[in-house]
Give the backbone structure.
Amino acid sequence: MKRAILWSVMIAIALIMGCQSEEAVEVDDVVVPEQSEGFFWETEHDGNQIYFLGTAHIGVEDMYPLSDEIESAMDHTDLLLTEIDNSSEENTQALMAAQRPHMRLPPGHKLDEHIDAEYHDELEDVAEYRGIDYGMLNQFQPWVVEDLYNELMIMESDYDYNLGVENYLYDNVLDDQTESMALENYGERLTSVRARDLDYQTYVLEQVFKQNEEMDSEEMLERSVTAFRAGEEELLDYERVVPEDVDNPEHEETYLNELLFKRDEKMADRIDEIVTERDGETIMVAVGLMHFFGEDNIRSLLEDKGYEIERR
């Protein structure tokens, strides 16, 4: 079983949920098909057939198989591109090794001295869930505890990281004739999005705790997964803007820029670079669905480079 590399799933989904208009489609109004429709696009460029699949990083068994069109594209894929390449135990161990130098607080620091006292119970919950001594947990950087807390929220839900779309693709696309490749440098992404200064990390962790109090985490997860299964864009009606009523606009702006804008620009450039190097191949780009919507997303950035991308 692959170990998931967690990336602020609850905040990312809350970003989608938080900007829903009053007229937004409700989950109960959406008909979920037997085979997931997904968010699926295609183009031909520089002699290559390219498919784009906006993924859900968590899932349920009933999500599979995917639509016939997606399954057919999978069968013909020569190169699978994902955010990070977690397709093998060797790759997973390398990703975990990249995390270790950034996991602990500087000597003399304790996490609960930086986190508001109202959230200390959540820290204790995380320690109990992982079977970790509280004193050891108290030495971790906030981003590590954020990942562990996300893991706890998923475990208590009906969803599973191991049933996320990327894992399904790894199991059903990759063989001796199919390559896999990462679009992002994991170490760079870790330090730019997650392992930043302590004040920023503390703010993000407290926001995760706060949002779980204010929103139903199961509902957030259901909305994201249902959107993927139905291919229903209206469930993802959001804008890439910082709301006016946030606690720290500067940190929120940094988070939005690092999580979406900068990553999408780098991934679009990397996709274009790879496509230019290939000839006559079928390439599937599978990244989180939020990277295909909103201002300056991967699709729009590639369209600016001359790609003509159509929804399937």
